[in-house]
Every structure is written in structure tokens, then in C-alpha cells.
Amino acid sequence: DICKYIDAECFLTCYVDLCKSMWGMLRNYKAIISWHHKDNQNNSENLGCNNNDNIQKQRSDNSATNSPSKTGMESHKMEDSFDEGSYVEQKLQHGLYRIWQDVQAKIRTFILASDLSHFKFDDFLKVLDVTNKLVYIGEDFCGSKSEALRDSVKKQSTSFFQREHTARLEELHMFLENEAWQIVPLKANFTVYQLLEYRFLKVRDNSDRSITSISS
């Protein structure tokens, strides 16, 4: 509800700041996933490289002491750590879509809370541009089509252009009402084709008549 009290003059600035904050959150989330992915790769490589050596050491230690070796215990710890890291990365990957849905919901609430139909044309284009960039970010982030964002932009665009169209019609109506119309004296044989701007209509009309006469 607090979004409704944002002044039109501050809307664009607040909207850009909000989008930057959301983008920063998404970037940090991606960075966390990337860190876990690289860490799991390193653990997997280390586990694969040391696996054979650990098995040989474990066998030699067991034959010498007849007790579980320390190397074997460390190997199991590495495997458990790798499994835990893979689980965390998997959970983070599954959370991509949910995070983006939350971001969409907040952005959509902010956009629809204000009446953008009274915006200047250039300012409204800036809102559309920022929103389109967010849509591209969503596609890159989790492959989402961002239906919520597109729907909010569609509603605001429809409202904006309806008001713009109505305002222009009213302006045109005012000009026509205040126009000083005067009767122009014309000859009895005057036709619109005698005007330079409409002579092309005479050529088209003659060609249409020729086609009609040929077909008949």
C-alpha cells in the first residue's frame, strides 16, 4: 500500500533504484551458486585424484595394524563433504525460479500501484525500457518468460495510450471548434480534382473507370 503514496516525480527514480537492488540480489544469488559449483568441482577432482592413493594406503595400514586407517576415515569425510556440497548447490538451483517469482511480484506491485497514464511520453518510455531489461534478466537468470512483468507493463501501456489518444482527440476537437471557417467562392464546374493535392485521385479514378468498362 505504501507504493501508492509515491509521487509521480519520484516514481522513475524509485523504480530504477528498486530494480538495481533486485538485480544486485539476483547477482549475489548467482555468485553463491557459482562458488558452490566451483567448490564441488574442486572437491570432485581432489577426490578422484586421491582415491587410488587412499585405497592403497588404507590397505597397507590395515595389513600392518589390523585397524581402520586414518586415511580411510579422511576419504569418507571428503565424500560426505562432496555430497553435502552437491545437495546445497542443487537446492540453490531449484530456488532460482522461486527467487525470480518473488522479484517479479514486488516489481509488479510497484508498477501497478501508480497511475502512469499522466506520465510524459519520454518518462514512460524509460519505464518500459527498464522493465524490458528486467525481463531479459529473468530469462537469463532462470529461463522465465516473466508473464507477471509483461502483464503489468501491458496494463499500464493500455491505460497510457488510451489517455493519450483521448487527450489528442480533445485537442483536435478544440482546434476545429475554434477554427475560423469561411465559405470559399467556387465556380459551378469546380471539382476536387482541380486542386493540386488531389490530382492523383483523378488519375486513379480514370483508371478504375477504364477497368470497369473493359470488364463490362
Quick rundown:
With 216 residues, this protein is mostly helical. It has five helices and no strands. The radius of gyration is 36 Å and the shape is elongated.
Mean pLDDT: 80
Shape: elongated
The residue fraction in helices comes out at over 70%
Rg from C-alpha positions? 36 Å
Q: Per DSSP, what share of the residues sits in E-state strands of 2 or more residues? A: under 5%
Regarding quaternary structure, what we see is single chain
- SS element count, helices: 5
SSE class:
mainly alpha
Order of helices and strands: HHHHH
Number of strands: 0
Terminus-to-terminus distance: 71 Å
Number of domains: 1
Reported for the largest beta sheet, the result is:
none
* Poorly predicted parts: 66-71
Task: Give me the secondary-structure topology.
Blueprint: H1 8-65, H2 70-112, H3 121-142, H4 147-178, H5 199-215
Helix pairs in contact: 1-2, 1-3, 2-4, 3-4
Question: How would you describe this protein?
Answer:
- It is a single chain.
- 80% of the residues lie in helices and 0% in strands.
- Helix 1 (8-65) runs antiparallel to helix 2 and helix 3 (121-142) runs antiparallel to helix 4.
- The chain is an all-alpha fold.
- The longest helix has 58 residues, at 8-65.
- It is built from 5 helices and no strands.
- It has one domain (2-178).
- It has helices at residues 8-65, 70-112, 121-142, 147-178, 199-215.
- The radius of gyration is 36 Å and the shape is elongated.
Pick out its properties.
mainly alpha, 216 residues, Syndetin-like, VPS50, 5 helices, SNARE binding
